[in-house]
Amino acid sequence: MQPDNPYASTRGSITSKQLPAFDEAMIQKYNRSGPRYTSYPTALEFTPIPVDLETKILKNREARAPLSLYFHIPFCRHLCYYCACNKIITKKNSDSGDYLEYLIAEIKLKRRLLTTEGGKNPVVKQLHLGGGTPTFLRDEEMVQLWEFLQTQFEFLPEDEGDYSIEIDPRELSGNTLKVLRDLGFNRISLGVQDLDESVQIAVNRVHSAELIENVLTEARELGFHSINIDLIYGLPHQTPETLEQTVRRIIEMAPDRLSVFNYAHLPERFKAQRQIKEADLPSPAAKLTMLGNTINTLTEAGYQYIGIDHFAKPDDELAVAQREGKLHRNFQGYTIMGDCDLLGFGVSSISQIANANSRYILQNDTDLQAYQATIDAAQHNLAIMPAVKVIKTSIEDRLREYVIMNLLCHDYIDFKDVNQKFGIDAITYFIDEITQLGAMQEDRLIDMDAAGIRVLPKGRLLGRNVAMVFDEYLDKKHKNRFSKVI
């Protein structure tokens, strides 16, 4: 029987979610650069924002829509050589206090514009601190930020909301995890990358397996609901054997989620990567072996493949949401909070706000000094707002976003569902795209019929390739701006 939600899994038990099938020949055939689709259109379509537009967007957002808050903390105490982000390496404690003042000022700027029902504070269902290293903020500064937020917003109880933070396990005070849990954080993410010492030295991120295990043990004792660990394959001095040892050691620690990222070596774009010797990197064939081994090891250990590098235990909220057809994707990655407007704070942060007929994607300045100058100017001129770039999505964008995100979240697009939501005949509307997908159908990456398009096990690792067929913006001007799928 067809479930009420056409994207819900019909595969039975929680452990039988469609497993990805590693097919090296298919990966090599289709492995090309493409977006990660944390939005559609992607961030490459940003244009300068007109004066007063951010003010209008925030004033006109749906008052009943809950919020997801994102705070970008750009500071790190150590330079990781694999890094492809715009981070600021500093050991000055004063930097965090200064930056916190700017975050609070930006919160005030945006909060005054948010309309609410009955004059109540806007409801927050999700909060995430990313970076950089969010725990660069001292414990007392984290308390200051959290307590201020309680005066501006209404947070769901911590057993209903999703409140997470990224952690560098090397940069925790003896009390940090307890402080975070007492405030209401219920999920943490640890950047581990690899446990092999020679790899850690090569990328300038050295820590012991015992340190990671101790952090996980303390987090569980404190009652954190979910723990994520980040790993990277393709780092210098990695081999299939050493990475397999890392993966198996991490499985013993039993994190609820894992993110296994492909290292893309682009030293011409990212200065930190110039510290890595290209001769020390594993070959493309070795990287494919690492990927295949990691997928097999994790799925054999019972982890559900969510998509785009992510795995979760079958009882984790992400895995449950995927099986129920309720998984979403935004600038924070896979999420269960698809009904939220995303409100970003801090340098380079991104917001996604919907109003009556449009969705807007906005970004703050990516340069710290420029961001701070904007916030300073806004204190004297209320017409000034932090966003410097914007994307206004069209109905066409919303249609294609719906198709792309369901393919990436649920491995399926239901034509009847699309017809009802957008008032089109999907087969006729997407006839060119369906024709392009013919080769993938012949290779058994997908299955197409009158009901829809389903990504098959051999195609799950290439879901981005399937989605890219529906991307109208993906042309030659962007071809060198993305990492490869694998």
Could you walk me through the main structural features you see in this protein, from its secondary elements to its overall organization?
With 486 residues, the protein is α/β, with parallel strands linked by helices. The protein has helices at 24-30, 53-60, 94-111, 139-152, 176-183, 197-203, 209-222, 240-253, 284-300, 317-323, 368-378, 395-410, 415-422, 426-429, 431-436, 438-442, 463-468; strands spanning 47-48, 67-73, 75-76, 88-89, 123-131, 154-155, 162-167, 187-193, 226-233, 257-262, 304-307, 310-312, 328-330, 333-335, 341-345, 350-354, 359-364, 387-393, 412-414, 446-448, 452-455. It has 2 domains: 24-30 and 395-478, Arc Repressor Mutant, subunit A, CATH 1.10.10.920; 43-342, tm_1862 like domain (pyruvate-formate lyase- activating enzyme, Alpha-Beta Horseshoe). The protein contains 17 helices and 21 strands. The strands form 5 sheets. Strands 2, 5, 6, 7, 8, 9, 10, 11, 12 and 15 form a 10-stranded mixed β-sheet that branches. A 4-stranded antiparallel β-sheet has the order 1-18-17-16.
Structural class: alpha/beta
CATH class categorisation of the largest domain:
Alpha Beta
- Which architecture name of the largest domain does CATH use? Alpha-Beta Horseshoe
Q: Oligomer, anyone? A: single chain
Fraction in helix: 25-40%
Q: Number of domains in the coordinates?
A: 2
Quote the average pLDDT.
91
Over all CA atoms, what is the radius of gyration?
A: 22 Å
